[in-house]
Amino acid sequence: MKVEKILITGALGQIGTELCGRLSALYGTNNIVGLGLEEESKAADIALGTYISMDVTDSVALQKVIEEHEITTVYHLASLLSGTSESNPPLAWHINVDPLIFFLERAKEKKIKKLFWPSSIAVFGGGIPKTNVGQEVPLNPTTVYGISKLAGEKWCEYYFNKYQVDVRSIRYPGLISWKAPAGGGTTDYAVDIFYKAIQEQRYTSFIKENTALPMLYMEDAISATLKLMEVSQDQISVRTSYNLGGMSFTPQELAAEIKKEISEFKIDYEPDFRQAIAESWPSSINDSVAKKDWGLQYDFDITAMTKDMLLNLKKKLR
Ligand code: VAH
């Protein structure tokens, strides 16, 4: 086991729930500390040595956690997602940016060695092609969430360039998982649909049938994250945030995959405010830089993901 003490914020969130398990297997559960807003009882079956229920914007409490647990590496995942952020811009900025700067400052002071922070394809906006969007293109986000993620990317690059802080980041596409329900994201239709397919054999999508978005199965997202955090610094050429494209599909295409497994499944469409958010994002992403720098690869396509999601969700919902 590597001797690392790892802190995960947003530990009970969609990414955190799975990352805890994978990091515990690598570093030993006792070396993993999780933070979240949820009460401690919610962390009972998550692979964590310690779970602390607290507000990630409480910098005094954060400082205490880092010192008391002798944290060496932070995975700072806590964030308000795109849908939720639109309803409260000041709160979204406060949650999505201030704690990141706190951790960048601690890394500058060498209080922590290494930091991971998730960006998102939400940093992309108008004035660029919709398909195969490259690593270095103009970033014109039009959502509160995208603006906060673009700012975060620039802070990461600033602290690397000025203070050699080892902060690493990935622009996640929409993430699909069965362990923790997603919440507040525009791409979360692609999670909700599986729950409804099993429970009601029908789903009303808030995104239009032909709107393609970049998506990724959580297993692949976690593997990519761990790979980025393991490689040596000289393999990293991007210190804003790496594109991760995964796979691109529309609600109609995902419904067709589900119908192969649940033949009576039906879908209809009632787009809401999140349709405009989805339309501001690319439909596919070029992630060749991540593949070249640190060997990014994927194991799940839409068919394998659909089978795995339904298999595991049926057990979970039983
Ligand atoms: C959201 N799931 O929908 C997130 C993601 C690309 C979107 O960042 O807000």
Overview of this structure, please?
With 318 residues, the protein is an alpha/beta fold. The two termini are 36 Å apart. A 7-stranded parallel sheet has the order 3-2-1-4-5-6-10, with helices on both faces. A 3-stranded mixed sheet has the order 7-9-11. A two-stranded parallel ribbon has the order 8-12. The protein is built from 11 helices and 12 strands. It folds into 2 domains: 194 residues, Rossmann fold (3-Layer(aba) Sandwich); 114 residues, UDP-galactose 4-epimerase, domain 1. Helix 5 links the parallel strand 5 and strand 6. The mean pLDDT is 96. It is globular, with a radius of gyration of 19 Å. Bound molecules: (3R)-3-hydroxy-L-norvaline. The site of (3R)-3-hydroxy-L-norvaline has 14 residues, from strand 7.
Low-confidence stretches: none
Helix/strand/pairing category: alpha/beta
Shape: globular
* CATH architecture tag of the largest domain: 3-Layer(aba) Sandwich
What would you give as the CATH superfamily of the largest domain?
A: NAD(P)-binding Rossmann-like Domain
Question: If you average the pLDDT, what whole number results?
Answer: 96
Oligomerization status of the protein chains: single chain
Physical arrangement of strands within the biggest beta sheet = 3-2-1-4-5-6-10
Strand content: 15-25%
Distance between the termini: 36 Å
Bound molecules: (3R)-3-hydroxy-L-norvaline
What fraction, in percent, of the residue positions are helical? 40-55%
Question: How many separate structural domains?
Answer: 2
Rg, rounded, reads 19 Å
What's the helix count?
11
Tally the beta strands.
Answer: 12
